[in-house]
Amino acid sequence: MVQVRCWDNGSVASVDFDASALGDKVKTRLLSAVVRMYEANRRQGTVKTKTRAETAYTENKPYKQKGTGNARRGDRNSPLLRGGGVIFGPRPRDFVFHHPRKALREALRSALFGKLRDSEVCAMVASSMTAPKTKDARTVLDALECDGATCIVVPSDNEAVYKSFRNLPRTKIVRAADLNADDVLRHHNMLFVDDAWDVLNSRLASRQRQSAGAA
Q: Exposed, middle or buried by CB within 10 Å (0-12, 13-18, 19+), for 24?
């Protein structure tokens, strides 16, 4: 059990988080590989340059072959001339690749363990936030000392919480069922709303039990 700061109706207290499903160390090599996958999958892959067959210059020789003292030229589409084609330039391609689901879950456990170890996890009770109000959301972050980018994890869709935090800079609202290691590592602080931690913990723990049973 790990104690984290919790905001509840204007006051800050401590609450226990069960971290038994997260393991006991940060697997940096796995996190590096998983983050590289998420970043590659976000690439559009639409960069393109023209080859000499696609440029619009005339294919006539700029001057005769001999007698001018200049180098021999075929046409102005040559990659050696300004405005000509590009040799081995980038072409549209798909950068997407995937890691096994078991590796992605283990990376999420490792990332969360690192956040708990560094005291960058906090919680809030959203029962008092009945209506969207950005000022209340700013008050929560200030009270919990959440400086920098913050990822707000909700157990399910919550309109009041979503509309309260969405206008704040460097914040992201994500459901516990959709949280991944990239979301955790891209934000300095993690803020779990209501029982979002329990939802996430049961999701990770159940997968661990299934893997142990299969073994």
A: exposed
Average predicted confidence (pLDDT) for the chain: 86
Strand-by-strand arrangement of the 121-125 sheet = 11-17, 2-8, 121-125, 189-193, 150-154, 171-175
Beta bridge partners of 124: 7, 193
Model pLDDT, residue 209? 52
Which pLDDT score is estimated for 214?
A: 47
C-alpha closest to that of 21 among 214, 191, 215, 209 = 209
Given a contact cutoff of 8 angstroms between Cβ atoms, the answer to whether 138 and 168 are in contact is yes
From residue 73, give the alpha-carbon distance in Å to each of 66, 81, 84, 172. 10, 10, 12, 57
pTM of the model: 0.77
Distance, CA of 151 to CA of 192 (rounded, Å): 8
Q: In CATH, which of 1.10.287.130, 3.40.1370.10, 3.30.70.270, 3.20.20.60 is domain 2-43+98-214?
A: 3.40.1370.10
* 8 A C-beta contact, residue 193 and residue 161: yes
C-alpha to C-alpha distance for 187 and 153, rounded to whole angstroms = 12
Q: How far is CA 28 from the centre of its chain?
A: 16
User: How is residue 55 written in tokens?
Assistant: 């440029």
Residues 9 and 127 sit within 8 Å (Cβ to Cβ): yes
Domain boundaries, the chain: 2-43+98-214, 44-94
Tell me how far apart the alpha carbons of residues 84 and 191 are, in angstroms, rounded to a whole number.
54
